[in-house]
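Board notes (copied after class):
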Amino acid sequence: MGYEKDLRLEIKFDKTIKSILGNCFIQKNTNLDKLEGTDFIVYEIKPFKIGVRLRTNKYLINYPNEFTIRYSRPSGINTEIHKIQKGLVNYILYGFVNPEETKIIKWFLGDLEIFRSVNQKPLQIKQNNPPDSEFAVYNLNQFPKNFIINHWCYVPSPDRKI
């Protein structure tokens, strides 16, 4: 149940996540038509892997510039930090949902090559509640500006509910 619970938001927002990633990574190559006469625009996607983590709204309110990465499990199984350190994942899409869990309202896309290259230590390691794992806490300000390759935040008008 723990694994499925961890993935609940990612499964719920699967189509939105794909849309975000498509808009960030699928690029038009108009030169193929101009130079090679293909008579249509070609879209290019380079192969890579993206780790996705969505958090509930309470974390956005309490920790707006922080992100967490699962650091360890009592079973000793490899967690997200191990996959990142081994270079098995290229990017991280980290986002937050609104209180009703109907929209992704803030996200960033981070370059994990930059993450690995700066070898930044976490601000702290915390125990999850329930104690099924530990997670590392990082602040976006700990990393160079080129770590974040794209981001978005919904800002509602004062009279509109998120």
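Comment from the instructor: The chain has seven helices and nine strands. Helices lie at 2-6, 8-12, 14-25, 31-36, 57-62, 80-85, 112-118.
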